[in-house]
Amino acid sequence: MPPYIPVTPTLNLDEAELEMTFIRSSGPGGQNVNKVSSAVQLRFDARRSPSLPNAVAVRLIKLAGKRATNDGEIVITANQHRTQEMNRKDAVDRILELIRQATVVQKKRVKTKPTRSARAKRMDSKSQRSSTKGQRRVTSKDWD
Q1: Which residue segment(s) compose the domain that 19 sits in?
Q2: Full-prediction pTM beyond 0.85?
Q3: How far apart are CA 31 and CA 17, in angstroms?
Q4: Is 124 part of any domain?
Q5: Does the residue 62 lie in any domain?
Q6: What Å distances lie between residue 3 and 14, 18, 107, CA to CA?
Q7: Residue 79 is part of a domain; what is its CATH number?
Q8: Residue 29's pLDDT is what?
Q9: Dihedral of CA 43/96/72/2: which sign?
Q10: Residue 139 burial (CB < 10 Å; 0-12/13-18/19+)?
Q11: How many other CB atoms sit within 10 Å of the CB of residue 87?
Q12: Which burial class, exposed, middle or buried, applies to 103 when counting CB atoms under 10 A from its CB (0-12, 13-18, 19+)?
């Protein structure tokens, strides 16, 4: 039985679906930065994942934005920490959080019309404001 990562109480992710490559991290670090591949690049094929329902996969790709490729693969690069293990954990946590966000279905917005009294209040405030501004206006007979 392959190891599964719990995402939500009803959704588990097969660890084999996460493809990780270790790359050299950018930034300061002295001579060590050129020798040690501590950054992690995690790839997850959301479109072809058997663990995710289709609706969740579609929302996940949309949520990922520029981190998603045209093929529906999500690429996350983690290089904040100095150790490979910490960066690996950070990348996995980030993809799991993204999947959790994708499992939440947004409520559809129901269009509503303003009530008659709300429209009346709006028009009253507009006419009041117009009257106030009109009283500030200087007319030609005021100059005479």
Answers
A1: 4-103
A2: no
A3: 34
A4: no
A5: yes
A6: 6, 12, 34
A7: 3.30.160.20
A8: 63
A9: positive
A10: exposed
A11: 25
A12: middle
Alpha-carbon gap, residue 108 to 131, rounded angstroms:
41
For the chain, the average pLDDT equals: 86
pLDDT in tens, 12-63: 888 888 888 888 877 666 666 667 788 889 999 888 888 888 888 999 899 8
Three-state SS sequence of the chain: CCCEEEEECCEEEEHHHEEEEEECCCCCCHHHHHCCCCEEEEEEECCCCCCCCHHHHHHHHHHHHHHECCCCEEEEEECCCCCHHHHHHHHHHHHHHHHHHHHCCCCCCCCCCCCHHHHHHHHHHHHHHHHHHHHHCCCHHHHC
Would you state the structure tokens that stand for residue 109, as one six-digit string? 């917005």
Rounded Cα–Cα distance for residues 42 and 130 (Å): 60
Backbone angles phi, psi at 19, to 5 degrees: -105, 120
The answer to the question of residue 82 being in a domain is: yes
